[in-house]
Amino acid sequence: MNCKHCGRPIEGTVHIEGGYRGKQRCDPADSGLSYGYNAEPEGDDCQDPCLGAPNS
User: Fold this and answer.
1) Which residues pair with 10 in a beta bridge?
2) Which residues are CB-contacts of 55 (< 8 A; sequence separation ≥ 6)?
3) Of 17, 23, 27, 55, which has the fewest Cβ atoms less than 10 A away?
4) Which of 38, 2, 4 is nearest to 20 (CA)?
5) Using one digit for the tens of pLDDT, what is the confidence trace for 4-56?
């Protein structure tokens, strides 16, 4: 499955390729977003502490 923020493949909540391989946060160079977005599957709601979460 792919991360909804950066489009990179993820396994569970960890990126399996890209600049932040093995990490839960998206690489800003991959996502084009500021640091703080988590590896989350397309179609899922953002969960804390992701910056995309409603309470962030």
Assistant:
1) 15
2) 48
3) 55
4) 38
5) 999 999 999 999 999 899 999 999 999 999 999 999 999 999 999 999 999 86
* Short-list 51, 38, 52, 34, CA closest to 10: 38
Q: Domain limits at 52?
A: 1-56
Number of domains composing the chain: 1
Q: How many CB atoms lie within 10 A of CB 22?
A: 9
- DSSP string of the chain? -BBTTT--BEETTEESSSTTTT-SBPPHHHHSS-S--B--BTTSPP-TTSTTSTT-
